[in-house]
């Protein structure tokens, strides 16, 4: 009961704080006092437009050819203007720029390429294996999946560990009980699908 009263009071407070918007019954525009000077100015402008007074003269409407605009805005590069470039540059200035560039030119000696890492490459292994997941390819003595429980959330780590321990030929850690060459739930299709068809 107490929460009901609090809810009703809160709703009443919120309703009392909101502003009332005009609706069809309120004569909103009847309460506005227009500015007489602005109305007179607008009336004169409309009358002049109706009578044809103060007509706007468009360029070229009197038979004359309008002049071309000046195409030299200040602060903007004019390198696309041939005449401006000819005025600013010469063969001597180009030669000086070329000499300055030759002075700053630096030859970098090539270095040997870095050695590839020799650790396990899951992508290369996935692409090199053609058998399907679950297709028995290697002989296994145990079919227990208990060793895979620690790699449940990281199948890539299971496959890395499997290959580091001598897989797929040997499975010392019992990570490939079905003998397909892929540890636990690791799927090579992620890497195989990267190849173009």
UniProtKB/TrEMBL annotation:
Residue ranges with Basic and acidic residues bias: 151-175
UniProt superkingdom: Bacteria
Ranges annotated as biased composition (Polar residues): 62-77
Region (Disordered): 51-77, 143-182
Name of this chain's protein: Excalibur calcium-binding domain-containing protein
Protein species of origin: Neptunicoccus cionae
């Amino acid at each position: 009961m107490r929460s009901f009263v609090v809810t009703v009071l809160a709703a009443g407070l919120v309703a009392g704080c909101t502003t009332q918007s005009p609706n069809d019954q309120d004569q909103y525009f009847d309460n506005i006092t227009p500015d007489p000077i602005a109305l007179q100015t607008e009336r004169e402008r409309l009358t002049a437009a109706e009578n044809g007074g103060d007509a706007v003269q468009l360029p070229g409407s009197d038979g004359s050819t309008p002049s071309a605009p000046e195409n030299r805005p200040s602060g903007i590069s004019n390198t696309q203007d041939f005449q401006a470039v000819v005025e600013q540059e010469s063969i001597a200035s180009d030669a000086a720029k070329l000499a300055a560039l030759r002075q700053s030119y630096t030859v970098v000696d090539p270095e040997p390429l870095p050695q590839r890492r020799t650790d396990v490459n899951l992508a290369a292994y996935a692409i090199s294996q053609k058998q399907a997941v679950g297709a028995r390819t290697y002989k296994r003595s145990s079919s227990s999946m208990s060793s895979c429980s620690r790699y449940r959330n990281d199948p890539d780590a299971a496959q890395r560990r499997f290959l580091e321990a001598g897989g797929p030929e040997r499975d010392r850690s019992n990570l490939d009980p079905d003998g397909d060459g892929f540890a636990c739930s690791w799927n090579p299709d992620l890497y195989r699908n990267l190849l173009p068809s």
